[in-house]
Design a protein that fits this description.
Chain lengths: 596, 380
Amino acid sequence: MSAAATSFADQRHGSLRGRLSNPALLLLPAGLFLGFIYLLPVIDLVRLSVGGPTWSTFFERVFSVPLYWDSLVRTMQISLTVATLCLLLGYPTALLIRRTSGITQILITAAVILPYFIAILIRTYAWMVLLGRNGPVNKLLVGLGLLSEPAQLLFNRGTVLLGMTAVLLPIMVLSIYSSVSRLDAALPRAAQASGAGPIATFWRIMLPLTLPGMGAGFLLVFVAALGFFITPTLLGGPGDQMFAMHIVQQADFINSEGFLQALAVVLLVITLLFVGVAGHFLGFEFIWGGSRAAGAAGQASAADAGEGGAPRRSLLSGLADRVGWPVLRLLGRLSPAWGSWTVFILAGAVIATLILPILVVMVISFSSASYLTFPPPGFSLRWYEKFFSDPNWMDAFWHSTVIAAASAVISVVLGACAAMGIVRSEIRGKSVIMLLLVSPVIVPPVVLGLSLYSLFLRFDLVGSIWGLASAHAIGGIPLVVIIVSAALQGVDRRLEQAAALHGASPLTVFRTVTLPAIAPGLAAATFFAFLHSFDELVLSLFLSSAQLKTLPLMLWADINYQLNPVLAVVSSLEVLLVVIGLALAGPVLARTRAGA
Amino acid sequence: MATERASLAEPSAEARMSGAARAQGSIGAGIVLRDVVKNYGDFRAADCISLDIRPGEFITLLGPSGSGKTTLLNLIAGFQKLDSGEMHVDGAPIDHVPTHKRGFGMVFQSYALFPTMTVAQNVAFPLRMAGVDRATAERRVAETLEIMRLSEHAQKTPSQMSGGQQQRVAIARAIVRRPRIVLMDEPLSALDRRLRESIQIEIRELHRAIGSTILFVTHDQGEALTMSDRIAVMDAGRIVQIGTPVDIYRHPQNRFVASFVGESNLIEAEIVQRRGATMALRNRAGYVFEADAGHGIEVGRATVLVRPERIAIADGPGPHAMPVTVTSALFLGEVLRIEARTDSGETLLIRCMDAAGRSLPAAGERLHVSWGAADCWVLA
């Protein structure tokens, strides 16, 4: 009797413990955090947008005022153009990375990766310097006698497209490269041995196989471009207003509540629509750089390849046969050297575009002139002195550092737990949960900032360090989840099982086996979460106060007011931070990628 | 051996080939390499290689990894350029002909099937590239799939097939144009043993049926022995010996070939006496035996190869038997594999057929072994 009771109690105790030790619980903290600070505000945003006399009042206004409608069309056009340009320029660059080896490959890869981690604000500023009246491009054109006096090269559609393409290119290159690098090197050889020339090999073999990477890159660039705010604001003229810029402008008017939210909802819905359609075809894994195609090929899942792939492929290849192939046959008459030269020249131009602006800015930071000019008349450290002696800049630098550190802590703690939960639990609907965790990446920052603003007002968080850190963590958590879950998947489960078999408790297993294996990934994740917050501008525009200026906010104010070499100093320091961070995280990252 | 097994597989590739296809079957081309050199930086991957491959021959490049066999294959395929030397196919130089115009077929270790195409499209690819019209191409593809017994898989994608099936598709793709030369780069190394043996037979039959010259690369000496008309053994970027499988196995020209091809006992011995065509030798344990004196070594020491299966176990001690101590014995089914030590401490490997009444010797047991003059091969 008593024995039975004890065992019953044991069992209940065990099942309670069992439930508490379920790894799925690790998803809870991140879930609650994002639910409160991300989902709730977005829902609130939608609620306000339909809060007019009828639910559609505000939306009707958005679509009937030509200003907004035109801007929406323009935003689409610009985004589509930018995505197309990125594709055309990114593909040869990805191919070049694959074709080269050794130190050349490392340098080219660095030229692509480095800009990827430098703040959009700084890269846009670099273009303003490069194309400014006293910038190197104007100097060169005048020097060559092509212009009689420096021309206004900035503030037109061309510079917007150029700037946005340059800013978004790394995403495209990395996306295409990830699918190019997975190709079996024997495939192009097999095509050649089967009698296919270089063009046929490219068209029949390489292109179809890299289509998923191209699709993913195109979508990522397109969607990011839809919500772009910083670059078009700085580089565009009055005729280049993009949709996100209207939202920021309207936010200054108190009486536009409802309509303002409707604008944001329109942008959000369009973004989600494109992501949804793309996700349907490519698999939503494209958002975090995974690939459904690769997974299917690895596991040789017969059903998947059979039903989904065939009809679409035949349609595509039919089109390719009728239109593309005859054109390429004509190109085939050119000497084979043309192909390599095209790749070489295009990719060379791309690399110059990515790295030159940064170099120019770094040179200018050592200028002795009191205004922006290139080449600098002499060397001096006066602007570095000015930066380090100006209390405003120092305060901003300190604020940014504290906020970024706090944000990195929040992101890594919540994100790493969530990654454990998602990789190690048997929970159903993993891909949906992953999608939710990663979704902040695709929401336009302007929409996020606007939705957070009312939440921050209600809880009096505007201008508070923890408030900003939490807001930045919305974007930091996805980064951590992506990196740490990739690292976790690289850990051999059997190692953990072996440790448990030899008597290690779950906590000891984690401490002695799992943690050391994912430590590099955690370190990289911490760095990227820190950098994300350190660079963040758009959310801060909405959520900070005059007392709490961050470094990007100071930069933003100064760029709009006057371009002076102090900005170049800040930019150079940021580049230095990224270079050091990448040098430390580089080997780690390579290993994480290999593991994934 | 190979022929015997081939006749068991039914129906044979020859039988499966229609008369028309056989009549078209191209006669393979001859390949001539003269002083071919290829360096990778400081590393000399191909060191002055000269080789004559006869039209229609099945020739195997055999060697350990890094011996230069794949480099040589890549040079012939045109994936890499020669540093110096000459390459001719049927008398015409091919150094400056790009891969896709050489018209060879090739089978890769990783299969390298195009994942976005079906089996039929993969096999049709070389024909499409050659501009063969659709009807002819369809007929040829169907024929080739028939030969490779893949007809029912025509509409599958490569990822839906097993490794062995994928390799057969790769072979079908390589032969669909009836090329003069088919290159095979370790095509069977990713398959398990049973499958490997059955595809070995299939490739062998196919070779007889289509008549192409086949250049086969492998590091597996057993595979090379079973399949080839001739074997070129490679080491450190050079061809160290070329000959028929029997020749290579029985009469290796140096220690490397002797130990790389098959299992071997290399016995250091002293020449005691010459008697015309034979000579008497004494090993360190004092055992005196006879060998053919073909190689012109007069006096001093020689290395003698005795294959493990050529060593006989005597019934008891005698003047022509050497006593050894068994160190280990394994029962492998049809044969016993015995390791023994001579009284002077050399290891001796012995293989003998399992026979009625023969028991597996225990470690430490004393045996008496012997071999005749015809069982020895004196290395140069």
